[in-house]
Amino acid sequence: MSNVHLRKLCITRGSNAVIRDLDLQVEPGEFLVLLGPSGCGKSTLLHSIAGLIDLADGSIEIGGVDMSHADPSERGIGMVFQSYALYPTMTVEKNMSFGLRISGAPKAEIQRRVQRTAEMLQLEALLDRKPAQLSGGQRQRVAIGRALVREAGVYLFDEPLSNLDAKLRAELRRELKLLHQALGSTMIYVTHDQAEAMTLATRIVVMQGGHIQQIGTPSEVYERPANRFVAGFLGSPSMNFVDGQLDTGHRFSAGALALELPLNHAAAGGAVTLAMRPEDIHITDDGQLEASVTLVEPMGNHQVVWLDCGGHGLSAIVHDPRPLAPGQAVRFTVDAARVSLFDPASGKRL
C-alpha cells in the first residue's frame, strides 16, 4: 500500500481552471471517496493521479516518490473505469492477465495472481468465458480483477458501478468493501452516489466547482456539514432549510416555525439558516409545532412525509405505520440538539 500526496494541484482545460491549488493527503490503506455532482472535478482529479491528464502546476507523490510527470505505467496504480473496457475476443483469464503478459511477467507469477484474484472475486468458474457470455456485474468484476492482478500500491475507481442496476450496485458495493478489508490497499474512489460514499469510505472528500468543500469520516460529514452545499448534497431526502432569525436567547423563529436551540449552537442573534435532517423531525400527538401533510411517499420500512408548516416545506421520515394523508393536520417536534445553523450569506456553518 502507498500514500498519495497532492500539493497545490492545478489542472486547466484551455483557459479554464478545472482544479486550482488543491491539497490532499491520502493515507496508506485508506478508502478515500471523492464525492460530488457531475462536473465538480472529481474524475479529473482521479485521472491526474493516474497520469492520464497533465498538470498545469503542483505535484503528485505516490509512495513518497514524485510522480507528477511520470508515465501511467510507472506510477504503481491499478485503475477501474466506468466502462468495462474488456477485450471482446479474449477470455476472462486473458483479459485479467493482459497487462502482466505485456509487461513480461513470468507465466507462473501471472497464473498465481490471476488465480488469487479470481478466487477473491468469485470468477474461478468464468475464466474460460468471453465478455459476451457474462452479465454486467460479472464484467465489472473482471474489470476490477484486471486492476487487482497488478498488485499495485494504489487502486483508482472511476464510478465503476454507475452502469449497473440498483441490486447489482448494492451487491458489488458490499464486495468492494470486503475486498478492501481483505487487501488493506489504498483505494481512491469517485462517485456522485452518496450511498456508495457513505458505505465505502474511510473518509469522504466532498467537491464542488473544482474545490474541496469538506473532508471527514462519513459520520462527520453527515452530522456536521461544513457548509450549506455539503448539508444539502448528503442525505435522501436532503436537509430541510428554513431562513429565520435567532434571538440572543437562542430561540429560532420563522413564522409558525419556532424552536429553542441548545446554547452551543450560536452565541449571538441575527439572520440564520436552520437545517434539519428528515429523520430528526418527529410526528407525534404531543408535538409543539403544527403542520399539514402535503404528500406521503411509502418506502417499505418507512414513509417520507412532506409537511407544510406556515408556508415552510419540510420532509420527515416516519418509521411507524400510522395512516397519514394529504390535508391531514399533524403535530411534530424537532430534535434541536441535532440541527445545524448556517450563515445565510456565506453558507458556512455557525
From TrEMBL:
Report whether Lipid metabolism shows up as a keyword of the record: no
- Output the InterPro entries linked to this UniProt entry: AAA+_ATPase (IPR003593), ABC_transporter-like_ATP-bd (IPR003439), ABC_transporter-like_CS (IPR017871), ABC_transpr_MalK-like (IPR015855), ABC_transpr_MalK/UgpC-like (IPR047641), Mo/tungstate-bd_C_term_dom (IPR008995), NA-bd_OB-fold (IPR012340), P-loop_NTPase (IPR027417)
Q: Return one Gene Ontology term, BP aspect.
A: carbohydrate transport
Instruction: Please provide, alphabetically and separated by semicolons, the GO molecular function terms listed in this UniProt record.
Output: ABC-type transporter activity; ATP binding; ATP hydrolysis activity
Q: Name one GO cellular component term.
A: ATP-binding cassette (ABC) transporter complex, substrate-binding subunit-containing
* Name listed for the protein in its UniProt record: ABC transporter ATP-binding protein
Q: Which ranges carry the ABC transporter domain?
A: 4-234
